[in-house]
Amino acid sequence: MTKLHDNAGTWRLGDRTVNRLGLGAMRLTGMPWDEAPKSREDAITVLRRAIELGVNHIDTASFYFTPRRLANELIATALQPYPDDLVITTKVGAGRSRDGEFSFARPDQLRGQVEENIRQLGLDHLDVVNLRWGAAMGKEPGSIAEHFGALAELREAGLIRHLGISNVVADQLTEARSIAPVVCVQNRYGLTDREDDALLDLCGELGIAFVPFFAVTTSIPGAAATGAVPGEAEVAKVAAAHDATPAQIRLAWTLHRGAHVLAIPGTGDPGHLAENVAAGGLRLSEEELGLLDGAGRE
Questions:
Q1: Are 234 and 292 in contact (CB under 8 A)?
Q2: pTM of the complete model
Q3: How far apart are CA 90 and CA 92, in angstroms?
Q4: What is the pLDDT of residues 215-224, one digit of tens each?
């Protein structure tokens, strides 16, 4: 069977090698605004098909859930016994109550969140754990030392293999690295969401994976509903030249940003999964990259 990820290349997360085109688990459960619950069968099909296509990096969290679906449970049901090369990355720090309200853990609560992920996924330890920092919809300055230090202790205790950070600024990356090795930074980033250009470049210089979330969405909430999608014309032009979808072009652009950049597009639809994975094989010309870069910086 052809594995469409092969053209995207690989990167090391600590001592684990992952294909640069991965899968985000958030949409497996459906989103709060969906008119009807997502199909459990479709979610399990997506997970198993992703493995068949060569995906070996799945990003999840215990707070990815709806009243009827839990991402970690879907992953465990679909994929156990797990392939030897599969790397499951999760997040702690943030949490959600049963009514969907977000909260943020104290350092002494992080062990409970780590153990919750271990239990839900059916593992003995977690491959990669990101400390999710900041407000629900934005970054927050300040020290992360106490929280990251608590995770470093869990790493020493064997509950976690590798550590990352999410929704952070450069100073917080520097602080975290002074406490324990950091294998990845996971921030919101995409073609038209370029606030973290410098942080992406810094991660490349340090040999740290940069893992964008929401890479195929616009940076302006509600813009799609009004028709004013930044870069829409430029993305459409490049998509037409490659017989590709706009989402595939945004993913391809993301992967072109550096060999250390990992993509984790999420979907609960098997057809969209195949399109996302195929984007790893798209090669954009220098002219096309220049056109897209210009649109993204407008």
A1: yes
A2: 0.93
A3: 7
A4: 987 544 444 4
